[in-house]
Amino acid sequence: MMIPMMRRVWLLVAALLLTSCGSRTAGLRVDSAWARPAERGMNSAVYLRIQNGPDPEVLTGAASDVAETVQVHRTILDADGNAAMEELPRVSLAPGEILEMKPGSYHIMLINLRHPLNAGESFDLALYFEKTGEYHVSIPVLEN
């Protein structure tokens, strides 16, 4: 009699754990990801699209083994029309907001590549969110 009761308890615990894991990423989606090819020691950039779910979220950073430093940036224009990059330690996302990371806008910088990024290859990138936590994306390397 005790064994079936314990089995039900463990099944309930497992179901609750699975439910809580699924709710952390409910609605948050990342797609359209790609990176530019570059040689070892150079810099590259990752572009992607983040579609937020029903709750406010904050992108707090990114990481990858392919580069010494990984930073979230935004390209801005100065008064003379010259482009410059600004590091963003946090990017707030409203419910349902879509953040389009693309050339000339928001992007993820890969600084001092540890090995070349060749077209046709891919690598793992971790995005860090305040509520969702760590979100892994496979990034294909594509020609411009």
Topology:
Blueprint: H1 2-24, E1 29-35, E2 44-51, E3 57-63, E4 67-77, E5 83-87, E6 91-93, E7 98-100, E8 106-113, E9 122-129, E10 133-140
Helix content: 10-25%
Structural class by secondary-structure content: alpha+beta
Using the alpha-carbon principal axes, give the shape: globular
Rounded average pLDDT: 86
**What summary fits the major beta sheet?**
6 strands, antiparallel
Count, helices:
1
Unreliable segments of 5+ consecutive residues? 8-24
Order of helices and strands: HEEEEEEEEEE
Describe the structure.
- There is one protein chain.
- The protein has 144 residues and is of the alpha+beta class.
- The strands form two sheets. Strands 1, 2, 4, 5, 7 and 8 form a six-stranded antiparallel β-sheet that branches.
- About 12% of the residues have low confidence.
Would you kindly provide a brief summary of this structure?
With 144 residues, the chain is α+β, with helices and mostly antiparallel strands.
Give the tags:
144 residues, 1 helix, 4-stranded antiparallel sheet
